[in-house]
Each structure stands twice: as structure tokens, then as C-alpha cells.
């Protein structure tokens, strides 16, 4: 097709290194910002005189709006140019960050977080889409490895950086640290970014936007609230029911529209479906541990917020280093054995967290978590790339949006599930060891999900099309024979 050839040509003429720098910087700022506030909430509560339930909305609303924006991004990519969309997203993110930094009241701080999240929700799937359009099939693993570096490093460095900043400076410093990164990235994007996505001018279906927002937003809010307040709360049940009904209606509507907001037909490609499921399993294991371990260290073992963040840092560094390496290995050998070995490591190390006690050392937690992150690095980006490789060019924006949406949902589900299991299985009468018992049980649940992922990984047959020629790949995709790859 002419459009695909144009994209390929633009991919060849684009200077990929500065473009990658622009995209990764934007994604890094977005993900880092998402994880910074958790450690700083007590300071914000004291400064603005807030209750814990009220302050928690600063993190919940970000994830909620982020989750709502991601499914809509596929529509936006078809509607607007690459440059216009990326610059708008970074502009919104910058404005939201500035509002948060100077906000004198909680209400204005919430407004800033909402504006931030509306930009951040666009950045991640747009970045993945651009990478898949400017890199040929045989180089996508390496490119996605760099993307994986961001996915891994930002969430883990967030609590450590936040813990240090709020001990040294006012909580507003968190936003002042992010703001220069965003502004510099905006300027570089204006200079360097090229238009590589194809504009298809899809029709705007207002009802689909509303249903998508209610569906994904309701489920994400329900699972997030369940993680802190349990499953029986009225607001949890109502939001889950509304979310499930709206999402069902949304999915049924998308299958009937000629130009759907989010293309659920990507799940006709079996490899994409399988690898998306694997990515969700791994993300549950990763995000759940990132939530449970700081709770264990601060509330049960007596470590500071900074120390609990520091324990996650070796894993983040190892995963950051390994993601580009596993990306190159994927380009040569595919995803199957990377996934099998990675999930085996993840399963073993997860069960090593099921025998924790009040005497468990900082070193043990940091080392075992680091090896777990090695396993995650071997699975996360390779299986994501393997799945997206099976899609024809026209479906890549929908595939990246779907992949990121499922990751958000699995993160919310995993956090809620593991925290709820932990709380429900504590034995307060047995002192600290009784509290740690709940953590051990939550890691048994995480270990079971890892085993499920390990079994699924054996069904990966081959992780990329046989030919690198775009027309042959497109033809095979249209015939759906590539789904068996």
C-alpha cells in the first residue's frame, strides 16, 4: 500500500537516535511522575491538612485518567499528526506539572494531576506506535528494549527519589524536578520529531468515548479502591458493576462500528492475545511486589521510606541494563526461550519471598528482588514486541493502545489482589511475624500467577514473521496465517 511505503520511507529518513531520546525522555517523565507521590503523601497531608482517604485521590485520579486516555489514543493517532499529538500530550503534561508545583489548595492540585494524566495517557501508546513504524521488524526488539528500560527504571527510582527529596525539601520539589525534563523534551520534540503515523481520519463516536471512560475508569477505580479499603465497600462494588456493564456495551459496540475507537479484532491474532496475557501476568508480579515490599519494609520491618525505595533500586538498575540486551537477543532468537527462562526465574524468586520473617534483612530483599527483575526483563518487552509484530501496520496503533490498557488494568488488579490477600491473612496476635505472614501468602498468590505464565510461555511458537518484506507480512497478516507464528 502507498501509505505503508510512505511510512517505511519516513522511517528510513528519520534520524532514529535523537528521536528515540525524545520519546524515551517523555515516557520516562510520565512514568516517573506516576510513582513519585506515593512516598510524599504524608507530607502533602500535613501541609494541606488532608485526611488519608482524600490525599489518596492524588494517586488514584492520575491512574484513572491515564487509564481512560489510553484506549482513546488509537483514535487520536488516526486523527492527528504525530508531531501535533506528541506536542499536545507533552504540553498538557507540562501545564499540569506546573499547576501541581504552585497549587495552594488540594482542589487545584487535583486539577493539575488530571491535566498531567490526560497528557501522560497519550504518550505511552503513541511512543510504542512510533517505534514500530520507524524500525523494521528485525530491529524492533532492540527498540522495545530501550522502551522497556523506561518501564522498569522509572517506577522503581520513583519511590527512592521521592523519599530522598521529601526528607530534604518541600513536597513541591517533586514537580519542580519533573518540569525541566518535560520542557526540554517539548523543545526537542518540536525540533526533531517527524510525522510517521498514518492519518485515517476516523469518525468520532461520542457514545464509545463515554462507554470507554466509564468502563475502564470504573474498573480501574474499583480495583484500586479495593486494594486499600477491601472488596466489600459500596463504592468499590458500584464502580465495578458500572465499569463491567459499560465495558461490555463498549466492546459490543466496537465490533459493529466500521471505524471503532479501540479495535478488539486485534485479539483474532493468537500470538498477540497470548503475549498480551503473558505481559499482564508479569506486570501483576512486578507492580504487586513494588507495592507490597515497601509496605513490608516500612510498616513491619522498621525501615524508612527512603530505605524501602533503595531496596527496589538494584532491581530497577538490573532491569534497565538488561532490557536493551534482551531486546537484541529477541531480534536474533525470538521470544519463546527468553519468556520460558524469565518466567522460571520469576516463579522461583517469587516463592523465595514466601518465607519472610521479622528478621529478614535488607540485603535478602534487595538481592531476591533484583533477580526477580532480571526475570521480568527477559519477558516483558520481548513478548510485547512478539505480539505487536504479528499485527499489520494499520492495527499497530490499536495493538499498542490495547497492550497499554491491559497493562494498566492488570496493574490495578494485581495491586488490589495482593494487598487484599496480605491484609486478610495477617495474624496480629502473633506480633510482627503475624503481620509478615500476610505478605508471605500474597507472594504465594503472585507465585501461582507466575506459574500460569510459565505454562503459557511454552505455547509461543515463533515470534516474528518469516519474511521482512512489508507486503508479504501484510499479506500474511490479512490471511491470518501469521497468527500461528
TrEMBL record:
<feature type="region of interest" description="Disordered">
    <location>
        <begin position="465"/>
        <end position="485"/>
    </location>
</feature>
<keyword id="KW-0813">Transport</keyword>
<feature type="transmembrane region" description="Helical">
    <location>
        <begin position="114"/>
        <end position="135"/>
    </location>
</feature>
<feature type="domain" description="Major facilitator superfamily (MFS) profile">
    <location>
        <begin position="19"/>
        <end position="465"/>
    </location>
</feature>
<dbReference type="InterPro" id="IPR004638">
    <property type="entry name" value="EmrB-like"/>
</dbReference>
<feature type="compositionally biased region" description="Polar residues">
    <location>
        <begin position="475"/>
        <end position="485"/>
    </location>
</feature>
<feature type="transmembrane region" description="Helical">
    <location>
        <begin position="439"/>
        <end position="460"/>
    </location>
</feature>
<dbReference type="Pfam" id="PF07690">
    <property type="entry name" value="MFS_1"/>
</dbReference>
<dbReference type="InterPro" id="IPR011701">
    <property type="entry name" value="MFS"/>
</dbReference>
<feature type="transmembrane region" description="Helical">
    <location>
        <begin position="21"/>
        <end position="45"/>
    </location>
</feature>
<feature type="transmembrane region" description="Helical">
    <location>
        <begin position="337"/>
        <end position="356"/>
    </location>
</feature>
<feature type="transmembrane region" description="Helical">
    <location>
        <begin position="173"/>
        <end position="192"/>
    </location>
</feature>
<feature type="transmembrane region" description="Helical">
    <location>
        <begin position="272"/>
        <end position="297"/>
    </location>
</feature>
<feature type="transmembrane region" description="Helical">
    <location>
        <begin position="409"/>
        <end position="427"/>
    </location>
</feature>
<feature type="transmembrane region" description="Helical">
    <location>
        <begin position="142"/>
        <end position="161"/>
    </location>
</feature>
<feature type="transmembrane region" description="Helical">
    <location>
        <begin position="362"/>
        <end position="388"/>
    </location>
</feature>
<keyword id="KW-1133">Transmembrane helix</keyword>
<feature type="transmembrane region" description="Helical">
    <location>
        <begin position="57"/>
        <end position="77"/>
    </location>
</feature>
<dbReference type="InterPro" id="IPR020846">
    <property type="entry name" value="MFS_dom"/>
</dbReference>
<feature type="transmembrane region" description="Helical">
    <location>
        <begin position="204"/>
        <end position="224"/>
    </location>
</feature>
<feature type="transmembrane region" description="Helical">
    <location>
        <begin position="303"/>
        <end position="325"/>
    </location>
</feature>
<dbReference type="InterPro" id="IPR036259">
    <property type="entry name" value="MFS_trans_sf"/>
</dbReference>
<feature type="transmembrane region" description="Helical">
    <location>
        <begin position="236"/>
        <end position="252"/>
    </location>
</feature>
<feature type="transmembrane region" description="Helical">
    <location>
        <begin position="84"/>
        <end position="108"/>
    </location>
</feature>
<keyword id="KW-0472">Membrane</keyword>
<protein>
    <submittedName>
        <fullName>Multidrug efflux MFS transporter</fullName>
    </submittedName>
</protein>
<keyword id="KW-1003">Cell membrane</keyword>
<keyword id="KW-0812">Transmembrane</keyword>
